[in-house]
Design brief:
single chain; 196 residues; alpha/beta; 5 strands
Length: 196
């Protein structure tokens, strides 16, 4: 059985279509005042401007979700087999899903051995996003690629621990420099200081 993928645009279309039908059902079919104290046919009230405002806000929220899923993820290939992905700003579940898709789609074509996810620029990480980052690490491992999560702050580490996830197999560092050193070692490379 083929799986169906519901894109944000499809969900927005379906929601908008459903709400239009729902609102049309509640509207008066004529300009006459209904008998029954201001209620339409069947005893239903007509939609008020507040109903339309609530629907418009809901649709605007869906548009925002669609726009956030279209952001370009910066992916920097720092060695032949190492990809560095800096995450900046707010990351919600839509963006974290996009991160997973982009990283997994890059592993085979780029022949990656190591992916470094730098989370130092993330403002807030809730438990759902922390769980998604761990899923990214596990999914890349299934594809034969190691993921190093760098820039782990105290808040992020607390969220991961509160999830109760086994982090023994998860490679993390507090700084990007440490992550790059590990990535170089995984590729048989070494960072050396060049004297002037």
């Amino acid at each position: 059985m083929a799986s169906v993928r519901f894109t944000p645009l499809y969900v927005l279309y379906k929601l908008f279509s459903w709400n239009q039908v729902k609102l049309k059902r509640e509207c008066y079919l004529s300009d006459e005042k209904p008998a029954g104290g201001g209620k339409g046919a069947g005893g239903k009230r007509s939609p008020s401007p507040a109903d339309y405002d609530a629907q418009r806000k809901e649709i605007d929220g869906l548009y925002d979700q669609i726009e956030s899923s279209r952001f370009d993820l910066p992916m920097l290939k720092i060695t032949e087999h190492t990809l560095m992905v800096p995450l900046v700003g707010a990351v919600d579940s839509v963006k974290s899903q996009k991160i997973m898709e982009d990283v997994l789609d890059s592993i085979k074509p780029m022949q990656l051995k190591v992916v470094v996810l730098d989370v130092a620029g993330i403002k807030v990480v809730d438990s759902a996003v922390a769980a998604h980052l761990i899923k990214v690490a596990k999914a890349t491992r299934l594809m034969g690629c190691k993921t190093i999560i760098s820039g782990i702050s105290s808040i992020i580490s607390q969220n991961i621990v509160n999830l109760g996830v086994d982090v023994r197999d998860l490679e993390t560092t507090s700084t990007l420099q440490d992550a790059i050193n590990i990535a170089y070692k995984e590729n048989g490379l070494k960072l050396v200081k060049v004297d002037d």
